[in-house]
Amino acid sequence: MNDLQLEPTNAELVLIIEDDAGLSDLMMSVLEDEGYASACATSGRQAMELLATRTAGLIMLDYALPDMTGAAFIEQIRELGCMIPFVMVTGRDDASLAVQMMKTGACDYMLKDTTFLDRLPAVVSRALNDARIRERLQRAEMSLRQSERRLARAQKIARMGSWEWNVVTGEIYWSDELYRIFGFAPREPAVIDMEWIFGLVNPTDMAAFRKVMLAAAKNAQPFNIVYRINSLTDGEVVVNSQGEVECDSSGNVVLVSGTTLDITARIRAESEIQQLINYDTLTGLPNRSLLHDRLKLAIAQAAREHNLVGVLLLDLDRFKSINETLGHRAGDKLLKTVAKRLSACVRESDTLARLGGDEFVTILIGVSSEDGITTVAKKVLALIAEPMYIDGHEIYTSGSIGIAVYPMDGEDGHTLLKHADLAMYQAKEQDRNNFQFFSREMNTKVLERMMLETSMRKALDREEFFLVYQPQVDVRSGRIIGMEALLRWQHPDMGLLGPDKFIYLAEDNGFIIPLGEWVLRAACKQNKAWQDAGLTPVRVAVNLSSKQFGQQRLDEMIASVLMDTGLEPQWLEVEITESAIMKNAEQNATILHKLKEMGIALAIDDFGTGYSSLSYLKHFPITRLKIDRSFVRDITTNPDDAAIAEIIIAMAQTLKLNVIAEGVETRPQMEFLSFHNCVEMQGYLFSRPVPAEEFARLLREGLKY
Fold this sequence. Notes:
Elements lengths: L3 E2 L8 E4 L3 H13 L4 E4 L2 H10 L4 E5 L7 H10 L6 E5 L4 H10 L3 E4 L4 H39 L6 E6 L5 E3 L1 H6 L12 H5 L4 H17 L3 E9 L3 E13 L5 E10 L1 H15 L9 H18 L2 E10 L1 H8 L1 H16 L7 E6 L2 E9 L2 H16 L2 E3 L2 E3 L2 E9 L6 H17 L5 E3 L2 H20 L5 E10 L4 E13 L3 E3 L5 H7 L2 H21 L6 E5 L2 H4 L4 H12 L6 E6 H5 L2 H13 L3 E7 L6 H6 L4 E4 L1 H4 L6 H16 L3 E5 L4 H9 L4 E3 L9 H10 L4
Parallel strand pairs: 2-3, 2-4, 4-5, 5-6, 17-18, 20-22, 22-23, 23-24, 24-25, 25-26, 26-27
Antiparallel strand pairs: 1-3, 7-8, 7-11, 9-10, 10-11, 12-14, 12-17, 13-14, 15-16, 19-20, 19-27, 20-21
């Protein structure tokens, strides 16, 4: 083979830099079969010579070249302005090298193992596709900047006060109109300089004005700035100055010129118009018009962030009789007082508005559950019920609140307000001074929470909680290698409850700490009992919530449980989510290292759905990654889920971590994962979570699937 092989010029050309002639031949053959044009160089120097005359869409770069390292080659071409994407190829199974090259900008990292050539076309396809996407984004950004420049040139400078500043001589010219804007008679003073002008600008805006003027003179930057001046005749005046720059043939700025327009009247008129259009004249709160705009924005934000929006409609009870008895003036004062009290109940990010009459609406944004809405509603009713003193009269009133929640009760503002209104009338029918959710399901959920909160703390003493166990399987042998302990609650009134029905509540009220310790102790005790009965020892995985992981002396609590139950640490695995670990990464790293030193295995649960930072895999002593069931569910039909699963498996192998897939329900899912070297799995294909006695039978007799 020649030292330098070239294929026809192609924007998608793949340049292979590899000193192993046999391997480069195979790589070119594989890529040619997939329709890719390729070229090969055997050293960094030859690759530089090729790139001086050719263009390539992707570089497949061997890390160890005869004349330099792959990292040194990338550094050299980057200094020359060459930004071709590259994939690093190496024979070293070195996790730190992989992390280093990804930080350098590598699209991907490939190990020269037995599957290298099989994986090559997919890696090249993915890298080229990513490069095309980045190029399109860059072109779009460039087009946007060009459009903005065209718009700026198209806007004509308004003819009001005009001025020129000769940067070379320092001379400044003002038109007569500009003198009058600043409150001076024309040409008085006749000679002016920039420091004198700076002194006329409002001190609050002077720094910004000075900055744009000096930037125009130094860097040839045109500008458009609104600021305030202190006019000798009219006091504070708001002006808009626009400036352009002229340069000589050498590119040096010689003249800055522009116009200054007095926009004080326009600003005041716009402010007054906006106030009349959008705000209630009595209370100063947003009115119906602005409410609809704010509600539309809140819904759009909630849709993006997958949150709820709470719409609370408050109607004052017996306001009509108060208004008729004490008069409209007293009624207006009452409404103002109510508005102030309601303002104390909401955050700055929320919206409080007056619909008219005695109706007020609150929009709560960024809500994750109905609990926050319930808290605000209770607070509002409590404040409204407190006595108000109007014109020497002590007035008692109350309120009825109807609540609608996006997206359950409607996906647009009109529907949500309509449903909140219906719920408000339902609240009035319930003897008033209360709140009602529009949806029957939401009301049921609130009552269910109250019932759960009342009975939860007694449930441990009553032994209502119990554990079930789901096998974790090595599909190569079919053996059970572990199990995940899962919590259930046999509620005396509500029946069997899964953790999704009550764990959120336990985390909110702090009960998760004693409950979590009970789960850990019960799982360890049961595992030790199985071992004592002669069953094959396997690890038991126990989930820790973020609240548990953040508790003080967590390591001491776990050590105490192991000592009390007699279970060896090697048979315990602690599972924690990505987001929980990253909340306080430095402190959590210390805790994880302590657990690791005790001999406890550590797993990242729901991997790929949370923080997803590669850096923590390097710094944290993780043992195992769990591929989340959301990726496994459609792994055989959705290319994106399949790609994510493959990346997680490859990452785990590179970093020498075990990997297990959860939620495996079908044989095609199992075969796909097994083919891609994920051999540990759990899911309904093997077994549902089962009680302790059933799991003991599975340990004795094995699984059938």
